[in-house]
Amino acid sequence: MQMGARSLGLQLNILPASSERDFDVVFTNLLQMRADGLVIGGDSFFNSRSEQLGELAARHKVPTIFHFREFTAGGGLASYVASLTDSYRDVGIYAARILNGERPGDLPIVEPSRFELFINLKTARALGLTPQSLLARANEVIE
Fold first, then answer.
1. What pTM does this model have?
2. What is the arrangement of strands in the sheet containing 64-66, beginning at the earlier edge strand?
3. Could you give the angle at the alpha carbon of 89 between the alpha carbons of 88 and 90, nearest 5°?
4. Could you identify which of 14, 50, 102, 118 might form a hypothetical disulfide with 97, taking C-beta atoms 3.0 to 4.6 angstroms apart as the criterion?
5. Is 57 exposed, middle or buried (0-12, 13-18, 19+ CB in 10 A)?
6. CA–CA distance from 98 to each of 8, 94, 102, 133, 142 (Å)?
7. What mean pLDDT, rounded, does the chain reach?
8. Domain 2-82+114-142, CATH 3.40.50.2300 — does that match?
9. What pLDDT, on a 0 to 100 scale, did the predictor assign at position 75?
10. Contact, 33 vs 9, CB < 8 A?
11. Residue 131 has pLDDT above 90, yes or no
């Protein structure tokens, strides 16, 4: 992400959080830094608190993206995630291949090929954003 940000002329700040107490500190720091947005990295700690993070992002009016639909349903601006349906199908295919005698180490690595975009329209409006081109591409617009 650092390399990508630099190539776009953007500054990327990493704000760690390892407990729920850290969430308010992070959002306060974002406001003080006048950050234009927040990307929440994938982590089991954050995954299990996706709705809470969505609510905080909406309350603090910080445009935020995460990789779970529940985050967007909770008030976060957007989620962009590999298709869970495709991922579950791929797991089933792999399981069948292994049960049919193939060695797991011989199976190719599969990368997601289809992604889903979820946008919370209420949050977008509250932030003064009307991402018409993204709304047209969204798999689901949550109102």
1. 0.80
2. 38-39, 64-66, 78-82, 115-120, 140-142
3. 90
4. 102
5. buried
6. 43, 6, 5, 43, 39
7. 90
8. yes
9. 87
10. no
11. no
- Type of residue numbered 23: F
Position 95, amino acid: A
Domain boundaries, the chain: 2-82+114-142
What are the tokens at 136?
Answer: 């047209």
SS3 string, the chain, reads CHHHHHHCCCCCCCCCCCCCHHHHHHHHHHHHHCCCCEECCCCHHHHCCHHHHHHHHHHHCCCEEECCHHHHHCCCCEEEEECHHHHHHHHHHHHHHHHCCCCHHHCCCCCCCCEEEEEEHHHHHHCCCCCHHHHHHCCEEEC
The amino acid at residue 40 is: I
pLDDT tens digit sequence for 26-60:
999 998 999 989 999 888 898 888 888 888 888 88
